[in-house]
Amino acid sequence: MKHTFQAPAGRNVVVVGTQWGDEGKGKLVDWLTETAKGVVRFQGGHNAGHTLVINGVKTALHLIPSGIMRPGVKCYIGNGVVLSVTKLLEEIAGLEKAGVEVRSRLRVSEGCPLILPFHAAIDVAREAAKVKAGVEKIGTTGRGIGPAYEDKIARRALRVQDLKHPERFAAKLRELLDLHNHLLVSYLGSATMDWGPAFEGFMQNGQIQFDAVFEQAMQQAEQLKPMIADVSRELNEAHRAGVNLLFEGAQGTLLDIDHGTYPFVTSSNCVAGNAAAGAGVGPGMLHYVLGITKAYCTRVGGGPFPTELDWETEGTPGYHMATVGAEKGTTTGRSRRCGWFDAALLKRSAQVNGLSGLCITKLDVLDGLSELQLCVGYKLDGEIIDILPMGADEIARCEPIYETLPGWSESSVGVTDYDRLPANAQHYLSRIEAVTGVPVHVVSTSPDRDHTILLHHPYAG
Q1: Which residue in 22, 30, 342, 364 is the catalytic one?
Q2: Exposed, middle or buried by CB within 10 Å (0-12, 13-18, 19+), for 383?
Q3: What is the predicted pLDDT for the residue at 81?
Q4: Catalytic residue among 3, 30, 46, 50
Q5: What is the C-alpha to C-alpha distance for residues 208 and 74, in angstroms, rounded to an integer?
Q6: Which pLDDT band, with edges at 50, 70 and 90, does 1 fall under?
Q7: Strand locations in 344-444, DSSP E?
Q8: C-alpha to C-alpha distance for 142 and 25, rounded to whole angstroms
Q9: Per DSSP, which regions of 272-348 are E strands?
Q10: pLDDT by residue (tens digit) across 44-99?
């Protein structure tokens, strides 16, 4: 769909997930970059994944902002991102192989903490220890994101800027390795674990080897240096020049370290307010917040999920969502748990993000269901509440209260005009607006970039 309006100069939009991630943010970021000329990733690591479908061709991104698929759009990785240089260079190589020019358009903040092999080792070993002890896993991706954020908060992290100073990098690396190898061997029993090919060349007797990490980092630094920048300064300069920017969040609000289903959360702030801190801009530069939500709910990994359905038994609504929606994680390939739309959950997301409008994705997945359930609140310890409580223990005790709505048999796949949606699909969207108090501004009717219904453009003011 082509936009026919002239966007105000210097207008900036934040895109956030409002559920547990996997809401389809990548498609919307890519679609909105027809108007924006700069896209900023402000938190998370390569535990995130955005899948884009453009003219039927699928592309998976994990670190590089989704705007990279638009020629002429500049992409920024902000200081709030924990960066695996290995994975970034792999992603660049894959895009270049597909004919996408990356290096001249990508800027990486010198303030990004680095993810190194010992971070991933600790991540994997901790989850294995939980299994051995019979304790429920957090459900991490095992990519080292949490341990890297721990080093950041403890003020001992190696950062991108350290790659430019080999002696400084080496000194900090030795200190970090002493700490983390002690943890791996003495507490997590790494010497008895089978580490497999992912750690080949780095691991010996349960310890990460200094020489292997240092040599790899110095080799990668030469490729990364031309892309290292003061991202905060560049973003502020672009804004003053009237460039429209798009801030791209990873994961979802209910995985936020402060506002999510703690402790079953990620290790960063996924909410819109962190776009300022994670990119180095003032909050006054954030003009509109678009909340992305599926027309139903999904969740990967452990943790409470009030509206979860049986999504493994053929013939059930949950199975329909899982199969028609192809609910597999972009990053890990894990099956996503599926359930009914949770409006009480969305109220929490609207509250902590200050949502300006909603984009409902995967509406087409509900085609063919004769009846839909919309969660409008919960029963919790004998009381009725209309907003998701904070904390996993309280959420696990919530009993959803449902409103039954009629489904539709007509196809909504690829529809780009709201009036052409099935009448019951329109009614469903209207009820979501009414119950959550947030207007629906965009509707996605397939993974393809152009299969989008625009009701109000986020850049229109």
Answers
A1: 22
A2: exposed
A3: 97
A4: 50
A5: 36
A6: very low
A7: 357-361, 371-380, 383-385, 399-406, 440-444
A8: 22
A9: 288-294, 297-299, 337-339, 341-342
A10: 999 776 666 665 667 788 899 988 988 999 999 999 999 999 999 999 999 998 89
- Residue 277 token pair: 């801190």
User: 123 with 153: CB under 8 angstroms?
Assistant: no
- Tokens standing for residue 297: 């709910």
- The span from the CA of 76 to the CA of 204, in Å, is 36
Which contiguous run of DSSP H or E holds residue 224?
helix 210-224
386 is known as an active-site residue: no
Q: What is the DSSP letter of 203?
A: E
Q: 15 Cβ partners below 8 Å, 6+ apart? A: 25, 28, 29, 32, 246, 247, 248, 249, 290, 292
For residues 104 and 79, is the Cβ–Cβ distance under 8 A?
no
Question: Assign residue 201 a region: left if phi > 0, alpha if psi is -120 to 50, beta otherwise?
Answer: left
Distance in angstroms (rounded) separating the CA atoms of residues 228 and 111? 9
- For residues 273 and 132, what is the distance between their CA atoms, to the nearest angstrom? 38
Nearest to 362 by CA among 444, 454, 299: 444
Q: What is the pLDDT at residue 332?
A: 62
pLDDT in tens, 287-325: 999 999 999 999 988 899 999 999 999 999 999 999 999
DSSP-derived secondary structure for 31-99 = HHTTT-SEEEE-SB-TT--EEEEETTEEEEESSS-GGGGSTT-EEEE-TTB-B-HHHHHHHHHHHHHTT
- As a whole number, mean pLDDT of residues 392-400 equals 96
3-state secondary structure of 354: coil
Cis bond before residue 304 (omega within 30° of 0): no
Who's near 214: CB < 8 A, 6+ residues apart? 169, 170, 173
> Can you give the pTM of this predicted structure?
0.91
DSSP state of 389: P
Residue 110: the pLDDT is 97
320 as an active site residue: the answer is: no
| Phi, psi for 130 (deg, rounded to 5) | -65, -45
Helix H, strand E, coil C: the string for 373-388 is: EEEEEEEECCEEECCC
3-state class (DSSP) for residue 166 = helix
Adjacent-strand bridge partners of 51? 60
- As given in the structure block, the two tokens for residue 168 are 């400084």
The Cβ-side half-sphere exposure at 29, using a 13 Å CA radius, reads 32
SS3 of 288, please?
Answer: strand
